[in-house]
Amino acid sequence: MATRSSRPKARAGTARLRLRLYVAGTAPNSLRAVQNAEAICSEHFASRYEIEIVDLLQHPGRALADGIIVTPTLLKVLPSPVQRIIGDLSDRNQVLLVLGRR
Amino acid sequence: MHTSTARSPRHAMTKVLTGIEGFDQITEGGLPSGRTTLVMGGPGCGKTVLALQALVTGARRRKEAGIFVALEESTSHILSNATAFGWELPALAKSRLFFLDAQLSPDIVKSGEFDLIGLLTVLEARVRLMNAKYIVFDGIDVLLSLLDDPVAERRELYRIRDWLSQMGLTAIITQKVGGIEADDRYSFLQFMVHCVIVLRHQVVDGSAFRNLRVIKYRGSGFLGDEFPISLTTNGMQLTNWGPTELKYAVTDERISSGIARLDHMLSGGHHRGSNVLISGAPGTAKSTLAGLFVAAACQRGERALYVSFDEGAAQIVRNLRSVGVRLAPHLKSGLLQMYSARTRRPNIEDQFGALRAKVRAHQPRCVVIDPLSSLSPTLMRLGSADAPLRFLDFLKGEGITVVNTSLLEGLGTDEATATGMSTTADTWIHVSYTVQDGERNRALTIVKARGTSHSNQVRELVLSDQGVTLTDVFVAQGKMLMGVARWQWEQEDQAARERIRVDAEHKRLLLQLAQAEAAARLLVIQTEMEARSAEMAVLADATGSASKLQRTDRATLRKLRHADEDSRIEITAANDRAPKNGNPLV
After folding, report:
1. Does residue B188 contact residue B153 with C-beta atoms inside 8 Å?
2. B115 within 8 A of B156, measured Cβ to Cβ
3. How large is the ipTM?
4. Would the N or C end of chain A have less CB density within 10 A of its end CB?
5. How far lies B2's CA from each of B38, B228, B242, B279, in Å?
6. How many Cα atoms occupy the beta-carbon half-sphere of B284 within 13 Å?
């Protein structure tokens, strides 16, 4: 399975949140991260977000290319600057801080 | 010395050499192959160097690929730090070694739990791609501190261990510790691995001292002492692992000390391969004597090394030039190398490591260390007090003749043996000052000379632009005279002798004269005596014949006169009677 994106609901002009979540297959932390990411985004960003999931077990080269060490790692690609969060995202406050809410 | 001997031949373990001199020996072969070794230590102790060196040795010597996971320092930083070691890292980094920057930025945000599955997956792909045999995780503490949860820590460490075991890799994990390594915090990882090495770094009086200690090695014997380590141009090495027995050939050959008279006092000179100590107060020409020694060596066509801890090379050459010793030609020809070492720079072990390398490169037969004593105060307080002695052992093992100079004011035992130099030295020459009649002169004496009968007399060391000589000293009136005083005394002595001689000659002449006179007088008296004797003889004769005549006269007269036989005849009466009738009587 390559990457899977949430259905983008584009609205021209609005700043979109683009995230990339690096996971390690179905490891517990990774599964939790995916769930948490979806939950947080849908709750706080309505549909103005995009999450790209990169499974390192399938694409180990991406880790090297993108400098990913631990899993899961969440990369906020847009809006700039690029920022990282490591962990299963169970600490919502931390996530929201980075994403610019709260 | 602790040695664990829990090894049975059946479970002989395979080991891999690290290329760290001394370490491979104390572990009897290096690191455990296919197992994990933990290297713990404070910041700057050399953990990264150790791990990297092992990896490099595998790559260079055994052509085996390895991966370096940099969790704390960046790989560019590590690579640039390692250029001093000459391991050809840039080339290796492109071929057999793979460096991964896996540092987590300090401002990373953490939300919830994470794991290393992703990392290990990436590494696995690399291992298979390169057919790597070795892996280093440098700075695991960074990851562990981020996990911030003992349970998670253990979980991830087990994950790493299982993965390593599955991959069959020989691994080194380095961990920065901030206190005593026996602290509980670090115990889990120590339990988990096969071998644990602890590096320690002390700074005393501004000098850095590094030590290494193997505290665990499952299934193998090892030397568990703390060993000083040093960083040289080849990498890390243990400096205290040499054989305890000194193995070197003993020879009868003698080489010149640089001064002919001194050679004579030493029954020929210094023994080849011996250790000579020249001690004395500042300014007593110790460096000059050392310079003469190397000059003599170079003149014989031998390579020499002059190590100076105080003065620069140019200064030494100039100072020696002023007493007629020319080192410049030998420097030019390459026979002589001069090495200026400041003792406070790097650390003592590194310093001697560098010197060892210098000796190996230049291969001198004669070495001067001037002065060796400048090292002692610092070292005395630490375990590395024997660093100079070990270096001297090394030189002895190479059959190199060494002259050390040492600052010693006097020959009191405490001072002299404080550095241990006096006991190590085969020959000990001491130069001192004598102050007399407003003059300072240098006195040289041989305190000891093993294996040589030597003169026990003091000689005066005279330096001039013509060169250096030893002269006899005068002992007069119980005092030792040197310098001008000696010259004065010599002059006086000579004058006195001359006077005595002249006096004696004069007396002899007078006596001769008197003798002649006496002889002449004797002759005169003798002559007179003879004359008198002759006179006396004449007199006696005359008297005798006169009385004989008289008796004859009387007898005849009586006969003639038919007188009686009365012999009593008064001569005067007879003499008075003159013949009356003309009888001829007479």
Report:
1. yes
2. yes
3. 0.83
4. N
5. 20, 16, 17, 39
6. 25
Sheet holding B36-41, edge to edge: B97-101, B66-70, B134-138, B170-176, B36-41, B195-204, B207-217, B226-232, B235-238
The string of pLDDT tens digits covering residues B424-478 is: 788 888 888 887 777 788 888 888 888 777 777 788 888 888 788 888 776 766 6
> In angstroms, rounded to a whole number, what is the distance separating the alpha carbons of residues B86 and B189?
33
Q: pLDDT (tens digit, 9 = 90+) per residue, B464-513? A: 887 888 887 767 666 667 777 777 878 888 888 988 998 999 999 999 99
> What is the rounded radius of gyration, in angstroms, for the C-alpha atoms of chain B?
51
Map residue B53 onto helix, strand or coil. helix
Contacts of B335 (CB under 8 A, 6+ apart): B298, B301, B302, B303, B304
Which chain A residues have a beta carbon less than 8 Å from that of B148? none
- Closest Cα in chain B, distance from residue A92 (Å): 7
Q: Rounded to a whole number, what is the distance in Å from the CA of A12 to chain B's nearest CA?
A: 31
B112 and A22 within 8 Å at the Cβ level: the answer is no
Residue B190 CA to residue A51 CA, distance in Å, equals 41
Interface test with A, best of B109, B128, B151, B155 (most A CBs within 10 A): B109
Task: Assess A26–B contact: CB distance below 8 Å, yes or no.
Answer: no
Q: In A, which residues are within 8 Å of B104 by CB distance?
A: 69-70, 86
Distance (Å) from the C-alpha of residue B176 to the closest C-alpha of chain A?
Answer: 20
